[in-house]
Hints:
With 110 residues, the protein is an alpha+beta fold. The protein has helices at residues 15-28, 52-56, 80-87, and strands at residues 5-8, 11-13, 35-38, 42-45, 48-50, 72-78, 95-100.
Amino acid sequence: NQEPLYIINGSAVTQKDAEKMSMASLNNNDEVDSIEVFSEPLYVINGVQYSEEELFGATPTSPYAPLNKQEILSTKILKGKEATSIYGEKGKKGVIIITTKNNKPAEKKK
């Protein structure tokens, strides 16, 4: 099982980053508008579907891995009936729709 994805104020972050952001917000009296936690959702990045394993597994195969290195333009979250009405059984654990700047993966740094 993979670590769940955290979406804070529309940005995908790791658990460690989420914890840092939460503590920083508490210390600075900043507001966090929303926190969503998903376990094994379907990811749709620039129209292409990916599993959590393809993005976060031991050997990720998605060109968007690691996700936190991408230049994310927007995220949309679908849950419940909305997710399954569009994506069927694949959407039952939620759907994270991500659009990146330029609609392509960030270049790998060498």
